[in-house]
Amino acid sequence: MTTTNTSGSAPSGAGKRPRQLRNIGVIAHIDAGKTTLTERILYYAGKIHRMGEVHDGTATMDYLPEEQERGITITSACTTCTWAGTQINIIDTPGHVDFTIEVERSLRVLDGAIGVFCAVSGVEPQSETVWRQSERYKVPKLALVNKMDRPGADFKAVLNSMRERLDARPLAIQIPLGAGPDFSGVADLVTLERVTFEDDVVQRDPLTAQEAELAAPWREAMLEALAEHDDALMEAYLGGEAIDPQAVRRVIRAVTLSRALTPVLAGSALRNMGVQPVLDAVCAYLPGPADITPAKGQDPSGGKTVELPPDPKAPLAALVFKVIMEGGRKLVLARVYSGTLREGEDVLNVVQGKKERLGRMFRLHADQKEPLAAAGPGEIVALSGMKLPRTGDTLADPAHPVLLESISAYRPVISLALEPRNTEELDKLNEAVARVLLEDPTLSSAYDEDSGQLILS
Fold first, then answer.
1. Residue 78 and residue 64: Cα distance in Å, rounded?
2. Where do the Tr-type G domain residues begin and end (predicted)?
């Protein structure tokens, strides 16, 4: 029996310089449990000391008053935690179709994602949308079949739904033990152990005879699928040899990075079941900045393609993926692809062709900020004191300008005429619209000279 205590305390390696980095997003249909999962991740990683609930309006990542009132995620929120020596930057994305652009620009800067599916509803319409968005950006993914404690939960049906509606190749690496009110834990198909969760303690025990019989065909299916992608595992599998769990994990990581298969786990985030194995899987299977194909940019002077290695000593290249207005002040969110961002240094806004000095730099935790002096490849940071950047702009070393691919925006499908009640309110209206346009790249405005109205699309 193996027992791990995770009662809100930071795991081994917390507080030290992380050996590895993961940039992940949590994507799903609305109400699949994304924010609840993120809340539990932060708690078990020691980032927060009390779990908030979405339905109570106390979730850490839903910090806007509108989100707390409605119980939904409206804007993508960033945070950072550490698990087993790995720094994990998390972006919790909205699930509602109206906020798809938030998912789009988040996926543009992520290296991996967790797709969350309701065990009752399976693949839902917005699940398809965000999954295909992640495929467009070639993002490796894990999947979590959440809400296994709900009546009507069906793990196998969700896997079939993933195959049919997402054209995905799900690879179950866990199966639930029981479903609905009888859900009691999961069977780990890699180690053939029963994993249970109680009072923040993860307990691993050998499978009972009945559980081993249940897990046997699932493990065979997992090994067979993995063997197709690895000759050494194929030889051991066909030879009937005992297969070491580390060998299995190695191949799972390889097929995850290549996007050949999608590892699937089971749990119930609301009941605090299955969250720690998700964190373990993020560290074990999803890529870090050095594991993915290096980003490419263009030399603005000649149009030549430039490869951007994730090297802190290389020339700087960073992409602005979001702009937030905080009380009239601009907060710029950027992902560093190459080189190092340093507070107080001059950077070139390649899109606008202008230099600007970096103000203060922070690592975000929802609406809180942790000051940073420098940020290297893979880091997602917030920059204050800058006036020029807009969503999609590239920040680069003035001596080595390079242009990263911008973030595609959706074309408006509806327009609205705005008109102030009097001339005194005209300036206020223009200022308010200008702030909204900075934050949302899908919006555009035009002035209709005939009607004197401002048209917002």
1. 13
2. 19-290
For the beta carbon of residue 382, count every other beta carbon within 10 angstroms: 20
Q: Indicate if 243 and 165 belong to the same structural domain.
A: yes
DSSP assigned state of 431: H
pLDDT value of position 56: 44
Determine, yes or no, domain membership for 409: no
Residues 213 and 354 reside in one and the same domain: no
Q: What is the DSSP annotation of 110-142?
A: -SEEEEEEETTTBS-HHHHHHHHHHHHTT--EE
Structure tokens at 95: 């699930």
How many domains does the chain contain in total?
Answer: 3
| CATH number, position 40 | 3.40.50.300
pLDDT tens-digit map of 422-438: 777 777 777 777 666 66
Q: Is the pLDDT of residue 8 over 50?
A: no
CATH number of 299's domain: 2.40.30.10
pLDDT band at 278 (very low <50, low <70, confident <90, very high): very high
Q: Which two tokens stand for residue 394?
A: 């590239």
- The per-residue pLDDT for range 317-370, each reduced to its tens digit, is 999 888 887 767 888 889 999 999 999 999 999 999 999 999 899 887 766 788
d(CA 155, CA 117): 10
Distance CA 186, CA 204 (A): 10
Instruction: Give pLDDT, residue 324.
Output: 81
User: What is the residue range of 367's domain?
Assistant: 295-404
Alpha carbons 95 and 37: distance in angstroms, whole number? 13
Q: Mean pLDDT lowest for which of 77-81, 91-95, 279-283, 307-311?
A: 91-95
Same domain, 345 and 397: yes
- 395 neighbors 318 (Cβ within 8 angstroms): yes
Q: Which residues contact 433 (CB under 8 A, 6 or more apart)?
A: 418, 445, 454, 456
pTM, two decimal places: 0.84
- Please give the Cα distance from 247 to 59 (Å, whole number): 38
Q: 């070393």: which residue's tokens? A: 397
